[in-house]
Task: structure prediction
Amino acid sequence: MFRLLRRIGQYAFCLMFVGIGLVAFAVFDRDDERWWVGPAFVGVGVVLMAVFFLFNRWSDRRDAILRHGVDGRGLVTEVKPTAQWDSNDVRYFRMTMTVELPGRAPYPATPASRTTARAGTVSDRASWCPCGSISAIPAASWWRPTC
Result:
């Protein structure tokens, strides 16, 4: 709901510029030195509308990737025990994976979360990006061990 209201506000803001430009275009004659105000406002409104459209498109694509993830494959290349133990004598391990996504070159990744010997799965949503920034792939939704 908030997204819809934000977009309505963005496009209303752009249409305000276009409306002001049309009114100014109707008020000023071509002989007047300020005749360019009308087309300038219309141009700014159209450019802002295009910018908001592209930004919203990029934002929707990013949100869809973060919400649903990307189908890919992960190959565990290294598993090292850490010095950390759980309260009931379960040891934690650090995994290194090679992640393969369609349309991208394979890259190594280390999850930011912990892997236990008991569960054998990632304990929470991990960052799989090699730079450690915001994850483009929700790990818990696509990571499955393959036999």
Observations:
- Strands lie at 73-85, 91-100, 107-109, 115-116.
